[in-house]
Amino acid sequence: MNRPDGVTILQSSVALPDPHILSDAREGLNILAAVYDPLVRSTGPERFGPALAESWTLAPDARTWTFRLRAGVRFHDGAQLAAADVVATIERARSPELGGSYGTDGVFRSYVAGATVEAVDDQTMRIVTGEPSADLLDLLVALPIAPRGALDGLPDRAIGSGPFRVVEANGHEITMEAFAGGWHGEAGVRRLRWLAEPDHERRVDRLLAGEGDIATKVTPQGVRRLRDAPTARAVTASSTTCIIFLCNLHSGVCTDRRVRQALNHALDTPRLIDGLFDGAAERLHGPFTALHRAYDPASQPYTYDPALARKLLADAGYPDGIALTVDIPTTMPDEARDLARALTEQYPLAGIRVTIREHEDRIAYAYMVRDKRIGDLCLFDSSPPSTYRVLREKFHSGVRGPWWQGYANAEVDRLTDEARGIVDPEARARLFQRACTIARDDAPWVFLYAPHAAWGVSSRLDPWGPDPDGIIRFG
């Protein structure tokens, strides 16, 4: 790959995130990955390799995790990595005083609130969870480690052990320089410059004008523009983000399984994918993508069949159809209004009348969903690459997580609980698949699609591409 002296990345936002607030927002994760390291790194969906931990073990009880740290690691402030830094980081991340992002307050804490976290010696640390937690790495991969002496300065004073250190940061631009002497070795790029450009098309304009080397979150229209561009190209990849409508199973018509199945049969999802994404999205067969361990390749998506939808509604006691109130945000996903329009056009063919309620404030919308104050449906995304997190936070009726909307199936709960105590990942995956099949048939969501992620990349960086987890890295 061509290695220029500096690389400029154009993103919709470039604010320094708090590294310990759980978030799946890829643009923030790009910045964190340049500055910090977790204990383990992602080598693919739900697969992990060494990072600050060179090795680890999980005891047969699926509760006792022991991590051996990499020797000789220095932070940007010169401090040496020690087990006490990892302990202090986890204590900060699970503190009740730490907030959240778009409703994620307390999510990390809910997994490790009762855990014992200790330094065995300078190079060894141990986590003993209160309950079996065979999927704990799903969380630790997203937990950047900072030196204990620098935690009080977060997030504005960002100090990690990553391949780049922050030189200057404001709300519009972040400048980083390669961290000399870091454990990563030579980064190959001396400087990273992150520029905020909220407008999707302007990011592509600026890339083509030579003002940037990478543009994130490129739209299908932007991908078309880049196909014949002489100085840049589009890079696309599948993602674990599921665009869905959550069904309100607390009250209303969606408490009936047949109604929820009818809602899935009444929507022409392939037509949506072709119209909105030029086909650049994967149709969901259930609550997980093909990149999740719970995915069953033998599963089938709901067929588009308005007549069957009408029959299911009649069987549920609604021979004259139903009326739905549907909540949507105006952004995240950006195609929200297009999806609302599709509902109002397609659902009446199955006898479903739709009233749309728009919400401009996306943060308030997230908390409305978290507080279970939705209409019959609400548009949302499910972005964790972790199968266990989705099952626990969104489906488990005993946990009643932040995005759970009343779904209850004792077998799904049992399979999820059993899986967390199984050390063997393949055996765990088989239980997850069974839970996924049941949830698919119960239809607690209207399953839509997983859009492809897309970047615009200058020809100066050929043949650069993002890592398997979709993160921009130059370390």
TrEMBL record:
Classification via CDD domains: PBP2_NikA_DppA_OppA_like
Entry annotated with the keyword Signal: yes
GO cellular component: ATP-binding cassette (ABC) transporter complex; outer membrane-bounded periplasmic space
GO MF term list: peptide transmembrane transporter activity
Domain Solute-binding protein family intervals: 49-362
One Pfam family it belongs to: SBP_bac_5
Keyword Ligase: no
Gene3D superfamilies attached to this UniProt entry: Dipeptide-binding Protein, Domain 1, Dipeptide-binding Protein, Domain 3, Periplasmic binding protein-like II
Matches recorded under InterPro entries: Peptide/Ni-bd (IPR030678), SBP_5 (IPR039424), SBP_5_dom (IPR000914)
Alphabetical UniProt keywords: Signal, Transport
SUPFAM superfamilies: Periplasmic binding protein-like II
Recorded superkingdom: Bacteria
One BP term from GO: peptide transport
Family, similarity comment: Belongs to the bacterial solute-binding protein 5 family.
Protein name: Dipeptide-binding ABC transporter, periplasmic substrate-binding component
Species this protein is from: uncultured Thermomicrobiales bacterium
